[in-house]
Amino acid sequence: MPEVETLVRLLAPRLVGQRLLNVMTTPSRVFRGQQPVIAACLTGQRIQAVERYGKNILLRLDHHRVRIHLGMTGKLLFAPAPATHPRAMLAFEDDLLVFDDIRQFGRLELLPLEEGGPALGEDALAISPAAFTALLRERRGAIKNVLLNQHCLRGMGNIYTDEALYRARIHPQCPSFLVPRRKVAALHVSMRALLQEAIAAGGSSISDYVDTDGQRGSFQNRHEVYGKQGTPCPRCRTAIRRIVVCQRGTHYCPRCQRLPR
DNA sequence: CGGAGCCCCTGTAAGC
DNA sequence: TGCTTACAGGGGCTCC
């Protein structure tokens, strides 16, 4: 999500008010069957707003919205930043924006102006302490699962979930309703601070992520557990461990983050 | 409801 | 130098 927020902050001032002069697409699953109609629908419309909804980027135009999800390797690049797997090219009056996606786990789809699109949980940056506590109390699953589930909470991805749980000293497999009250409060604080710090750093670039000008973020340099298996915990020097939780690589300190009981 | 397993793709790095 | 396997910032599906 910090990567998406970084993109939205770069896109909005540059695109709002510009008219789409031409749209080109190449055959790809990112369009989910809409490829034939996308160019015809969008050409000629003006960008009214660029917003983030969880990890989605929403372009609001005169008569439609466009929902862009970057998946694992999606990029939005302003020419002349180099694209290797261009799926859509949006030609504006003053800019050429390319949706590039190696693995095609991303998507670019047309939505009506009102309604439609996914209904997700509250935004991780905006949720209140009370709502966050209630969410964790009512769920039975592992806390990592709850944080990652976009229908529970929108915006948290794998990197930031591991980092936030580390900061709050919570084991990723701990059932969310069993997390002690004071750790829930600590997690609420650390999660939002972490996301803000990552946004300020332009997001994390592990291998693929770059911003609209092809620039990498720098927050990967401040990861404390993500990808750090085998290296000493910054707090207690115990080796960071990697396990699999809900099919995702999960990194934590076995000493700082204990399962209760 | 929750969790496991598998799938969608391409590229890279590590292991033999 | 090869070939094979594991794994990757996400999410959707079925099955039990």
Structural account:
- A hairpin with a 3-residue loop joins strand 6 (about 85-90) and strand 7 (about 95-100).
- This protein has helices at about 1-15, 35-40, 130-140, 145-150, 160-165, 180-200, and strands at about 20-25, 50-55, 55-60, 65-70, 75-80, 85-90, 95-100, 105-110, 120-125, 155, 240-245, 250.
- By secondary structure, it is of the alpha+beta class.
- Helix content is about 25%, strand content about 25%.
- The chain starts with a helix and ends in a 9-residue tail after the last strand.
- A 4-stranded antiparallel β-sheet has the order 1-6-7-5, covered by helices on one side.
- The chain is elongated and about 60 Å long.
- Helix 1 (about 1-15) crosses helix 6 (about 180-200), helix 3 (about 130-140) packs across helix 6 and helix 5 (about 160-165) crosses helix 6 (about 180-200).
- The longest helix has 20 residues, at about 180-200.
- The protein binds a DNA duplex (16 and 16 nucleotides) through helix 5.
Q: Topology, pairings included?
A:
Layout lengths: L1 H14 L4 E6 L9 H8 L6 E5 L2 E5 L3 E6 L4 E5 L7 E7 L3 E6 L5 E6 L9 E2 L5 H10 L4 H6 L4 E2 L3 H10 L13 H20 L40 E5 L2 E5 L9
Parallel strand pairs: 9-10
Antiparallel strand pairs: 1-6, 2-3, 3-4, 4-8, 5-7, 6-7, 11-12
This protein binds a DNA duplex (16 and 16 nucleotides) through helix 5.
